[in-house]
Amino acid sequence: MADQVVREKEVELIKGFLGMVRRKISVDTMRILDAGCGNGYTLEVLHALGPSFSFYGLEFTDEMLEIARNRNLAGCVLDHGDIISTHYEDCYFDVVYTERCLINILDSEEQQTAIREIARILKPSGYYLMIEGFIDGLANNNKARREMGLEEDINPAYHNLYFDKDQLFPAIRHIFQVVHPVEIDAAMGEYLAPSNFLSSHYFIARILHPLITKGEWVRNTEFVKFFSFLPPIGNYAPIKAYILKKL
């Protein structure tokens, strides 16, 4: 992820989510899978959370997995594999999360196969934190760009297939229930893991910044970083976070 604000906010959200779940369930050590862990950056940050979390990483690309292994994360199990069909036992993990992993599967049926596999390896009532690309936030962002006179739409990368939540969630409702963060932690949930956590950032970075500069958006400018403290408002980010609970 080249966008530093997106990367930081994703990791912050995952940390908050894991803290919520840790307070919710009574186990000595939570087993957590980073499905599509890439170069292991997120795992390296989360590894510092301590011994009450047992981390696993699954990565398909050999080069990325090698980088992750070179981070020497003691106690973190890193495996080569494909999330569509894994070697893990049934009901093995308390939590699975993905960061922009399933959008790299360029077939909607295979995407759903991957989600069913995540359900298989999750314990009953286990949680899947789905941080993936969705078309509705992207459509709203492009609509706002056009209203501001920015004629060129921003489209997904050629190697990404974004989800349509109106099609996805009905298709998996027999295995997963979408839950609101407050259902996990009534005191803090609303603030720790909102689904639109990147909306304000995308509005600033992809709409307001190019409008002011009269050019195309550029990642990681000081202008954009200055506004990164804003709370999430609206639905202007393609990347969203949904908490799914296994039925």
List the SSEs and their pairings.
Elements: H1 4-24, E1 30-35, H2 41-46, E2 53-59, H3 62-69, E3 77-80, E4 93-99, H4 108-121, E5 122-133, H5 135-147, H6 165-171, E6 176-179, H7 189-192, H8 199-213, H9 222-226, E7 239-246
Parallel strand pairs: 1-2, 1-4, 2-3, 4-5
Antiparallel strand pairs: 5-7, 6-7
Helix pairs in contact: 5-8
Structural descriptors:
247 residues, alpha/beta, 7 strands, Rossmann fold
What fraction of the residues are assigned to beta strands by DSSP? 15-25%
The CATH architecture classification is 3-Layer(aba) Sandwich
**CATH homology superfamily name:** Vaccinia Virus protein VP39
CATH topology term: Rossmann fold
Task: Name the overall outline.
Answer: globular
Cα end-to-end separation: 32 Å
Q: Tell me the number of helical segments per DSSP (H or I, 4 or more residues long).
A: 9
Quick check: average pLDDT?
Answer: 95
Q: Could you give a short account of the major beta sheet?
A: 7 strands, mixed
DSSP strand count: 7
Rg value: 18 Å
Poorly predicted regions are: none
Sequence of strands across the biggest β-sheet: 3-2-1-4-5-7-6
The helicity comes to 25-40%
Going by helix content, strand content and strand pairing, the class is alpha/beta
Name of the top-level CATH class: Alpha Beta
How many domains, in number, for the residues? 1
Helix-strand topology string: HEHEHEEHEHHEHHHE
